[in-house]
Specification:
Elements lengths: L5 H14 L4 H7 L4 H9 L5 E2 L4 E2 L1
Antiparallel strand pairs: 1-2
Length: 57
Amino acid sequence: MLSMDPYMLLSFINTKLRDEFESIESLSSYYDLKEKDIIDRLSVIGYEYDSSTNQFK
């Protein structure tokens, strides 16, 4: 999943956070990924996780 194009990954992650998961922690646990790896991958394109809205902005 982390090898996806970062913009495709952003769309996928934000959709999953909106529809299925209440936090980045639960999403990363479900997919057996490190939270830091997701955050680092999306920071390359200028996005950061906002816990108050549960999405990358």
